UniProtKB/TrEMBL annotation:
Taxonomic classification: Bacteria, Pseudomonadati, Pseudomonadota, Betaproteobacteria, Burkholderiales
Transmembrane segments: none
Gene3D superfamilies, per database record: P-loop containing nucleotide triphosphate hydrolases (3.40.50.300)
Protein name, entry field: Phosphonate ABC transporter ATP-binding protein
A Gene Ontology molecular function term of the record: ATP binding
This protein's UniProt keywords: ATP-binding, Cell membrane, Membrane, Nucleotide-binding, Translocase, Transport
Chain segments carrying region Disordered: 250-273
Keyword Hydrolase applies: no
SMART domains: AAA
Pfam families listed in its UniProt record: ABC_tran
ABC transporter domain mapped to chain residues: 3-250
Protein backbone atom coordinates (compact mmCIF):
# COMPACT_ATOMS: atom_id res chain seq x y z
CA UNK A 1 0.00 0.00 0.00
CA UNK A 2 1.54 3.33 -1.04
CA UNK A 3 -0.64 5.55 1.09
CA UNK A 4 -2.51 4.74 4.26
CA UNK A 5 -4.37 7.12 6.52
CA UNK A 6 -5.84 5.87 9.73
CA UNK A 7 -8.04 8.27 11.71
CA UNK A 8 -6.11 11.27 10.40
CA UNK A 9 -7.18 14.68 11.67
CA UNK A 10 -5.54 17.88 10.48
CA UNK A 11 -5.89 21.53 11.27
CA UNK A 12 -4.13 24.48 9.71
CA UNK A 13 -1.74 26.47 11.82
CA UNK A 14 -3.42 29.75 12.64
CA UNK A 15 -6.84 28.12 12.56
CA UNK A 16 -8.56 27.46 15.89
CA UNK A 17 -7.46 24.07 17.19
CA UNK A 18 -10.97 22.74 17.02
CA UNK A 19 -11.49 23.89 13.40
CA UNK A 20 -10.27 20.71 11.80
CA UNK A 21 -9.73 20.68 8.04
CA UNK A 22 -9.70 16.85 8.05
CA UNK A 23 -11.57 14.75 10.58
CA UNK A 24 -10.61 11.16 11.35
CA UNK A 25 -9.98 10.19 7.75
CA UNK A 26 -9.34 6.60 6.74
CA UNK A 27 -8.00 5.99 3.26
CA UNK A 28 -5.79 3.44 1.52
CA UNK A 29 -4.36 3.90 -1.96
CA UNK A 30 -2.17 1.41 -3.80
CA UNK A 31 0.68 2.30 -6.13
CA UNK A 32 -0.58 3.15 -9.60
CA UNK A 33 -4.16 3.87 -8.57
CA UNK A 34 -5.87 6.94 -10.03
CA UNK A 35 -8.26 8.60 -7.60
CA UNK A 36 -10.42 11.70 -8.00
CA UNK A 37 -11.22 13.81 -4.95
CA UNK A 38 -14.46 15.69 -5.21
CA UNK A 39 -16.54 17.73 -2.80
CA UNK A 40 -17.78 21.25 -2.19
CA UNK A 41 -15.52 24.20 -1.56
CA UNK A 42 -13.87 23.91 1.85
CA UNK A 43 -14.45 20.13 1.99
CA UNK A 44 -10.77 19.44 2.67
CA UNK A 45 -9.49 18.33 -0.76
CA UNK A 46 -6.47 20.66 -0.71
CA UNK A 47 -5.78 19.86 2.94
CA UNK A 48 -5.75 16.15 2.12
CA UNK A 49 -3.37 16.64 -0.81
CA UNK A 50 -1.07 18.77 1.35
CA UNK A 51 -1.15 16.14 4.10
CA UNK A 52 -0.16 13.48 1.58
CA UNK A 53 2.63 15.74 0.30
CA UNK A 54 3.97 15.97 3.90
CA UNK A 55 3.31 19.71 3.83
CA UNK A 56 0.73 19.53 6.62
CA UNK A 57 1.40 17.51 9.74
CA UNK A 58 -1.56 15.55 11.06
CA UNK A 59 -2.76 16.44 14.52
CA UNK A 60 -3.65 12.84 15.24
CA UNK A 61 -3.96 9.47 13.55
CA UNK A 62 -1.50 7.37 11.63
CA UNK A 63 -0.11 8.31 8.23
CA UNK A 64 1.95 5.92 6.16
CA UNK A 65 3.54 6.77 2.80
CA UNK A 66 5.71 4.21 1.03
CA UNK A 67 5.44 2.16 4.21
CA UNK A 68 6.78 4.86 6.55
CA UNK A 69 5.34 7.58 8.72
CA UNK A 70 6.90 10.75 7.26
CA UNK A 71 6.66 12.55 10.58
CA UNK A 72 8.69 9.86 12.35
CA UNK A 73 11.53 10.30 9.85
CA UNK A 74 14.48 12.66 10.17
CA UNK A 75 13.98 15.89 8.23
CA UNK A 76 16.46 14.78 5.57
CA UNK A 77 14.67 11.43 5.14
CA UNK A 78 11.33 13.28 4.94
CA UNK A 79 12.86 15.58 2.35
CA UNK A 80 13.88 12.51 0.34
CA UNK A 81 10.33 11.17 0.65
CA UNK A 82 8.92 14.49 -0.59
CA UNK A 83 11.05 14.14 -3.72
CA UNK A 84 9.03 11.00 -4.56
CA UNK A 85 5.77 12.95 -4.25
CA UNK A 86 4.83 15.74 -6.62
CA UNK A 87 2.34 18.28 -5.32
CA UNK A 88 0.87 20.48 -8.05
CA UNK A 89 -0.99 23.23 -6.19
CA UNK A 90 -4.07 24.98 -7.55
CA UNK A 91 -2.00 28.05 -8.31
CA UNK A 92 1.52 26.91 -9.17
CA UNK A 93 4.03 29.00 -7.17
CA UNK A 94 6.05 30.06 -10.18
CA UNK A 95 8.43 33.01 -9.71
CA UNK A 96 6.98 35.72 -11.98
CA UNK A 97 10.20 36.73 -13.74
CA UNK A 98 11.32 33.18 -14.34
CA UNK A 99 11.38 31.73 -17.87
CA UNK A 100 8.98 28.89 -18.54
CA UNK A 101 11.89 26.58 -19.39
CA UNK A 102 13.37 27.04 -15.90
CA UNK A 103 9.98 26.72 -14.24
CA UNK A 104 9.48 23.35 -15.93
CA UNK A 105 13.02 22.13 -15.30
CA UNK A 106 12.50 22.83 -11.60
CA UNK A 107 10.76 19.44 -11.64
CA UNK A 108 14.24 17.94 -12.04
CA UNK A 109 15.71 19.76 -9.02
CA UNK A 110 15.47 16.77 -6.64
CA UNK A 111 17.69 14.85 -9.08
CA UNK A 112 20.23 17.62 -9.57
CA UNK A 113 23.21 18.74 -7.54
CA UNK A 114 23.21 22.31 -6.32
CA UNK A 115 25.76 23.14 -9.05
CA UNK A 116 23.59 21.74 -11.81
CA UNK A 117 20.64 23.71 -10.43
CA UNK A 118 22.60 26.96 -10.39
CA UNK A 119 24.09 26.33 -13.81
CA UNK A 120 20.68 25.64 -15.25
CA UNK A 121 19.38 28.98 -13.99
CA UNK A 122 22.02 30.74 -16.11
CA UNK A 123 21.71 28.44 -19.12
CA UNK A 124 19.00 25.75 -19.00
CA UNK A 125 20.62 22.30 -18.88
CA UNK A 126 17.92 20.34 -20.64
CA UNK A 127 15.67 22.66 -22.68
CA UNK A 128 14.66 19.73 -24.90
CA UNK A 129 13.17 17.94 -21.89
CA UNK A 130 11.15 21.03 -20.99
CA UNK A 131 10.12 21.49 -24.62
CA UNK A 132 8.79 17.95 -24.90
CA UNK A 133 6.86 18.22 -21.64
CA UNK A 134 5.36 21.55 -22.73
CA UNK A 135 4.48 20.12 -26.13
CA UNK A 136 2.29 17.52 -24.47
CA UNK A 137 0.23 20.41 -23.13
CA UNK A 138 0.44 22.38 -26.40
CA UNK A 139 2.57 25.03 -24.76
CA UNK A 140 5.93 24.47 -26.45
CA UNK A 141 5.89 27.91 -28.09
CA UNK A 142 6.15 29.45 -24.59
CA UNK A 143 9.46 27.73 -23.78
CA UNK A 144 11.34 30.99 -23.27
CA UNK A 145 8.39 33.18 -22.27
CA UNK A 146 8.36 34.76 -18.84
CA UNK A 147 6.01 33.12 -16.37
CA UNK A 148 4.26 36.40 -15.60
CA UNK A 149 3.39 36.71 -19.29
CA UNK A 150 1.35 33.50 -19.19
CA UNK A 151 -2.41 33.30 -18.79
CA UNK A 152 -3.81 31.47 -15.75
CA UNK A 153 -4.48 28.36 -17.82
CA UNK A 154 -1.00 28.46 -19.35
CA UNK A 155 0.51 28.66 -15.87
CA UNK A 156 -1.48 25.65 -14.81
CA UNK A 157 -0.21 23.67 -17.79
CA UNK A 158 3.32 24.87 -17.06
CA UNK A 159 2.88 23.40 -13.56
CA UNK A 160 1.70 20.12 -15.11
CA UNK A 161 4.72 20.06 -17.44
CA UNK A 162 6.91 20.40 -14.35
CA UNK A 163 5.17 17.35 -12.89
CA UNK A 164 5.91 15.41 -16.07
CA UNK A 165 9.66 16.05 -15.99
CA UNK A 166 9.90 15.05 -12.33
CA UNK A 167 10.41 11.40 -11.54
CA UNK A 168 7.72 11.42 -8.86
CA UNK A 169 5.95 8.19 -7.98
CA UNK A 170 2.86 9.98 -6.69
CA UNK A 171 1.19 12.95 -8.36
CA UNK A 172 -0.94 15.04 -6.00
CA UNK A 173 -2.75 17.42 -8.26
CA UNK A 174 -5.04 20.14 -6.95
CA UNK A 175 -7.68 21.45 -9.33
CA UNK A 176 -5.52 21.19 -12.46
CA UNK A 177 -8.34 22.19 -14.77
CA UNK A 178 -9.85 25.19 -13.01
CA UNK A 179 -8.47 27.76 -15.51
CA UNK A 180 -8.79 25.63 -18.66
CA UNK A 181 -11.44 25.61 -21.35
CA UNK A 182 -13.35 22.31 -21.72
CA UNK A 183 -11.22 21.01 -24.62
CA UNK A 184 -7.92 21.77 -22.92
CA UNK A 185 -9.25 20.39 -19.64
CA UNK A 186 -9.93 17.03 -21.29
CA UNK A 187 -6.58 16.99 -23.07
CA UNK A 188 -4.67 17.96 -19.92
CA UNK A 189 -6.36 15.32 -17.82
CA UNK A 190 -5.65 12.71 -20.51
CA UNK A 191 -1.94 13.59 -20.54
CA UNK A 192 -1.73 13.39 -16.75
CA UNK A 193 -3.51 10.06 -16.64
CA UNK A 194 -1.47 8.59 -19.50
CA UNK A 195 1.79 9.66 -17.87
CA UNK A 196 0.78 8.30 -14.48
CA UNK A 197 -0.31 5.04 -16.14
CA UNK A 198 2.88 4.74 -18.16
CA UNK A 199 5.17 5.03 -15.16
CA UNK A 200 2.80 3.28 -12.72
CA UNK A 201 2.62 6.45 -10.66
CA UNK A 202 -0.25 7.07 -8.32
CA UNK A 203 -2.47 9.98 -9.34
CA UNK A 204 -4.66 11.74 -6.80
CA UNK A 205 -6.47 14.64 -8.33
CA UNK A 206 -8.97 17.06 -6.84
CA UNK A 207 -11.60 18.22 -9.28
CA UNK A 208 -14.61 20.50 -9.26
CA UNK A 209 -15.71 19.07 -12.61
CA UNK A 210 -17.68 16.18 -11.18
CA UNK A 211 -18.69 14.77 -14.55
CA UNK A 212 -15.07 14.72 -15.71
CA UNK A 213 -14.14 12.91 -12.52
CA UNK A 214 -16.91 10.35 -12.98
CA UNK A 215 -16.07 9.82 -16.63
CA UNK A 216 -12.31 9.46 -16.23
CA UNK A 217 -11.49 8.02 -12.81
CA UNK A 218 -12.27 4.50 -11.69
CA UNK A 219 -12.27 5.52 -8.03
CA UNK A 220 -13.95 8.58 -6.61
CA UNK A 221 -13.59 9.89 -3.08
CA UNK A 222 -16.23 12.39 -1.96
CA UNK A 223 -15.23 14.76 0.83
CA UNK A 224 -17.36 17.12 2.81
CA UNK A 225 -16.60 19.04 6.01
CA UNK A 226 -13.25 17.30 6.30
CA UNK A 227 -14.75 13.82 6.21
CA UNK A 228 -14.92 11.11 3.59
CA UNK A 229 -18.57 10.81 2.67
CA UNK A 230 -18.00 8.07 0.12
CA UNK A 231 -15.10 6.18 -1.41
CA UNK A 232 -16.48 4.27 -4.32
CA UNK A 233 -15.86 2.75 -7.70
CA UNK A 234 -16.96 5.02 -10.54
CA UNK A 235 -19.94 2.82 -11.41
CA UNK A 236 -21.19 2.90 -7.82
CA UNK A 237 -21.33 6.69 -7.61
CA UNK A 238 -24.94 7.69 -8.17
CA UNK A 239 -26.45 11.05 -8.97
CA UNK A 240 -28.10 10.97 -5.54
CA UNK A 241 -24.69 10.62 -3.86
CA UNK A 242 -23.38 13.59 -5.83
CA UNK A 243 -26.46 15.64 -5.05
CA UNK A 244 -26.11 14.90 -1.33
CA UNK A 245 -22.40 15.68 -1.40
CA UNK A 246 -22.95 19.13 -2.85
CA UNK A 247 -26.27 19.94 -1.18
CA UNK A 248 -26.12 23.36 0.44
CA UNK A 249 -26.28 23.33 4.18
CA UNK A 250 -28.16 26.20 5.76
CA UNK A 251 -27.30 25.00 9.26
CA UNK A 252 -25.51 27.53 11.40
CA UNK A 253 -21.95 26.43 12.25
CA UNK A 254 -21.30 25.61 15.87
CA UNK A 255 -18.75 27.75 17.76
CA UNK A 256 -16.21 24.88 17.99
CA UNK A 257 -16.02 24.64 14.21
CA UNK A 258 -17.85 21.31 14.10
CA UNK A 259 -20.30 21.16 11.19
CA UNK A 260 -23.75 20.74 12.64
CA UNK A 261 -24.86 18.10 10.17
CA UNK A 262 -23.23 16.00 7.49
CA UNK A 263 -25.23 13.84 5.12
CA UNK A 264 -23.26 10.63 5.38
CA UNK A 265 -23.80 8.00 2.74
CA UNK A 266 -22.84 4.36 3.34
CA UNK A 267 -19.41 3.81 1.83
CA UNK A 268 -19.26 1.10 -0.83
CA UNK A 269 -16.17 -1.08 -0.80
CA UNK A 270 -13.42 0.82 -2.65
CA UNK A 271 -12.03 -0.77 -5.78
CA UNK A 272 -8.61 -2.34 -5.70
CA UNK A 273 -6.15 -2.40 -8.58
N1 LIG B 1 -4.34 28.27 5.50
C1 LIG B 1 -5.44 27.98 6.17
N2 LIG B 1 -5.63 28.41 7.43
C2 LIG B 1 -6.73 28.10 8.13
N3 LIG B 1 -7.73 27.33 7.65
C3 LIG B 1 -7.61 26.87 6.39
C4 LIG B 1 -6.46 27.17 5.58
N4 LIG B 1 -6.63 26.56 4.37
C5 LIG B 1 -7.82 25.94 4.43
N5 LIG B 1 -8.41 26.12 5.62
C6 LIG B 1 -9.70 25.58 6.05
O1 LIG B 1 -9.63 24.16 5.95
C7 LIG B 1 -10.86 23.64 5.46
C8 LIG B 1 -10.58 22.81 4.21
O2 LIG B 1 -10.06 23.66 3.19
P1 LIG B 1 -9.48 23.10 1.83
O3 LIG B 1 -8.74 24.22 1.18
O4 LIG B 1 -8.73 21.87 2.14
O5 LIG B 1 -10.81 22.75 1.05
P2 LIG B 1 -11.03 22.41 -0.50
O6 LIG B 1 -11.97 21.27 -0.53
O7 LIG B 1 -9.72 22.23 -1.16
O8 LIG B 1 -11.73 23.73 -1.02
P3 LIG B 1 -11.74 24.38 -2.50
O9 LIG B 1 -12.51 23.45 -3.38
O10 LIG B 1 -12.46 25.68 -2.27
O11 LIG B 1 -10.31 24.58 -2.92
C9 LIG B 1 -11.77 24.83 5.19
O12 LIG B 1 -12.64 24.96 6.29
C10 LIG B 1 -10.83 26.00 5.11
O13 LIG B 1 -11.46 27.16 5.57
Amino acid sequence: MTIQLHNISVHHSGAARSALALRELNLSITQGEQVALIGPSGAGKTSLLHTLACALKPESGKLSIFGEDPWQLSSSARHAMRARLFLAPQTPPLPPRQRVVNAVLAGLLPQWSIWQAMRSLVRPIAPDVAYEALARFKLQDKLYARVDHLSGGERQRCGMARALVSNAEVFLVDEPLSALDPTLALQTLAVLQQEAGKRQATLICSLHQVELARANFTRIVGLRDGRIVFDAAQQDVSDAMIEALYRNSDKMPTPDGEPSEVALIPTPVPPRC
